[in-house]
Amino acid sequence: DRPMVKGPNGLQRATWPEALRSIAAAADGLGPNQFKAIAGKLADAESMLALKDLANRLGSGNIWHEGGFPVMPADVRSTYVANTTVQGLEAADVILLIGSNPRIESPVYNARIRKSWLDGAQVGDRTCSPQVWGPGVLTHAADEASAWCEMGVQSANACLTAEQLLF
């Protein structure tokens, strides 16, 4: 992709160094919360976190995502990393996703899940409605997916991924 910079005739093509100099000039002298970070619908989690960190460094908490996702607290690392390693995910023979869409949230994680699936892992997805979010969400998911839970109990390498905002 090629960056665009606002010029006298609207948006104009620019090189990356020109685009970064333009951003630096525009951000210079901004007060707290005068900078707004906007992520598009196709932005991945890693890019959105980098944008959020930039906004925070500039003293702004104004962050918005066009996809309509709720604001995820990304200041604590454990809210956006998995508890398993990449090798652990690739070795999993049963993977259950609850309220999570790794295709949107983390393409790298999704690619590893797909690799596991291609290698024979059983992958299940249980998206819970917002009415059951909270402390009972895992019980609800277990009721809805008892066969998956049974496979997880019998599995030597099971992986459960639950959306952090469910709790």
Secondary-structure topology with pairs:
Blueprint lengths: L3 E4 L2 E4 L2 H12 L8 E4 L5 H13 L4 E4 L20 H6 L2 E5 L3 H4 L1 H12 L3 E5 L10 H8 L1 H9 L3 E5 L5
Parallel strand pairs: 3-4, 5-6, 5-7
Antiparallel strand pairs: 1-2
Name the descriptors:
single chain; 3-stranded parallel β-sheet; 167 residues
Structural class: alpha/beta
Average pLDDT, all residues = 76
Q: What percentage of amino acids are in beta strands? A: 15-25%
Taking the sheet with the most strands, its summary is: 3 strands, parallel
* Overall strand count: 7
Overall 3D shape: elongated
Which stretches are poorly predicted, pLDDT < 50 over at least 5 residues?
128-133
State the end-to-end distance.
Answer: 38 Å
Pattern of helices and strands: EEHEHEHEHHEHHE
How much helicity do the residues have? 25-40%
Strand line-up of the largest beta sheet:
6-5-7
Number of helices: 7
- Rg from C-alpha positions? 20 Å
Describe the protein in words:
About 40% of the residues lie in helices and about 20% in strands. With about 170 residues, it is an alpha/beta fold. A three-stranded parallel sheet has the order 6-5-7, with helices on both faces. α2 (about 45-55) links the parallel β3 (about 35-40) and β4. The longest helix has 13 residues, at about 45-55. The chain starts with a strand and ends in a 5-residue tail after the last strand. The model is unreliable at about 130-135 (pLDDT under 50).
Briefly, what is this?
The protein is α/β, with parallel strands linked by helices.
